[in-house]
Write a structure and sequence with these properties.
Elements (H helix, E strand, L loop, with lengths): L1 E5 L2 E5 L11 E5 L5 E4 L2 E4 L3 H11 L5 E7 L13 H19 L6 E6 L2 H14 L5 E7 L4 H4 L7 E8 L14 E5 L24 E2 L2 E2 L11 H17 L9 E5 L2 H6 L13 E2 L13 E5 L15
Helix pairs in contact: 2-3
Amino acid sequence: MESVLFDGTTVELPNDSQFDPSKPLKVVIHGWTESSLVGGQVQDDNQMPRGWAEDYHGAGMDFTVLGVHWVPRAGWGDPNNPEAEDTANTVSLLLYSLARNYNLSMDKVHMTGFSMGTVVTSWTAKKAQEMGLAPLGRTTLLDPCIAELATIISKSDATMVDVIHTSAMGICSEEPLGHVDFFVNGGRVQVCGSGSCSCPDGGPVCTGCYLGRPRCSTWGWLGAGWVESHMRALQLYRESIRAEQGRDQTFPSWRCDSYPAMQAALEQCPYDVTLPLVAMGEHLMDRNRPDEGVYFLKTTGEAPFSYKSYEN
């Protein structure tokens, strides 16, 4: 791998001799504050792209993984002004170059962004189309933040836009944004730990527990465990790549009537046996394109997170 610096953005990519345009291209973009500028060079602080590449390799999948590490020129001080468009300019120009020089087809491109990286992903998809490229094959958006900026995300960004919500508590988006939106454990807060708890009032939701397990945080995004719920999106997706329970058996999810209906039911969506199960994550499209809409699933509170929650 080699690293190339473009005006505050570092792109890790294979050497020219290694790039094969016939392989699917996975573009991975980290979130807010997850890289830093040291001595004029962007330093990767989370190893997200390399972790993705290791998981693909370990699962026997032959993809090219391109990692994007970005730092706003003014630093990480203001999340409302992330200069995501500058990074998107760099990445879209790279995609244009790969299409022009290597005949890379955009339907082979799958971009995955986490947190503020989802905004960079959406901007990149839009700018690539402005350059005359076809829509990307797929964009996957892991817990889009912040909510105000995530409104740029649209179904027109790619042929398939799938979204995974894990901490939609005011700072991250609570709204369905893509062709399919997965609201994990209701999408607001995640369950944690191996223990169980019961709510004093007998209800399914209370301050100390959630869906019968300890909750990762309070409702407010400043709660001590908010980051844990937010970062859970990354953990779930990486587990979906490895798919140790089977590619069509990991994170089985089912379609709900609507997000408001789910919220009205206290972040619950009972499974109807007539509904097809859809595997959230990497293998979403392995069999066929799922019906558009809002999807629900439960997880455990610790790895492995996936289980047959529809049987409960």
